[in-house]
Design brief:
This protein is mainly alpha-helical. The protein contains 10 helices and no strands.
């Protein structure tokens, strides 16, 4: 329970004050533990940031999405499942994505975590693109890597938030627009 309390406190404080603006002392106080416990249980701020990144990129939701895509019959059906998966990930981990992304701009450790997150993201997308290829719906002129990068580019959190919040499109319109762009770019016509 202590570890969960520390992770929860760090998540809240990193979101409120940023990674750089949050100290181990503040995390310890919010979790009602000693700073030594934060280091021993969680590896300090760096360990906590890594834990949050793992929650976002290596939690159960990612393999669940890959499995659900596998069960979908066509490339378009797989893209619909993937789009729903992105919405679920962003609902569950949007704050973590913002924390890691913002911290990466000024902290080398966070930059490495973001690089790892991006790699995991693209690895998962390659699995889904391979599924699309296996059902014969991937445009023959695209490699698995290029198709995964197209999806990664369009559905990346920053672009999603830009369309949903800044453009005011809302989730449904954004998902539809992004999905249509990806389908036209990677699926056979």
């Amino acid at each position: 329970m202590t570890r969960q309390d520390v992770v929860k406190a760090a998540r809240r404080l990193f979101a409120e004050h940023g990674y750089a603006g949050t100290t181990v002392g503040k995390i310890a106080k919010a979790a009602r533990v000693s700073p030594a416990t934060v280091y021993a249980q969680c590896g300090g701020k760096e360990g906590l940031l890594g834990t949050l990144m793992d929650m976002w990129t290596a939690g159960q939701l990612v393999p669940d999405i890959i499995t659900a895509c596998q069960a979908a019959g066509s490339g378009r059906a797989k893209m619909e499942v993937l789009a729903e998966g992105y919405v679920a990930i962003y609902e569950q981990s949007g704050d973590i994505i913002r924390i890691v992304t913002r911290a990466a701009a000024s902290t080398p450790v966070a930059e490495n975590f973001l690089r790892t997150a991006d790699q995991r993201h693209q690895d998962a997308l390659r699995q889904i693109v391979k599924q699309i290829q296996d059902v014969g719906d991937l445009d023959e002129g695209l490699s698995l890597d290029d198709a995964a990068k197209i999806i990664f580019f369009h559905f990346r959190h920053d672009q999603f938030v830009l369309a949903v919040d800044t453009f005011g499109w809302g989730v449904d319109r954004t998902v539809q627009w992004i999905t249509e762009r990806i389908e036209s770019a990677i699926l056979k016509t």
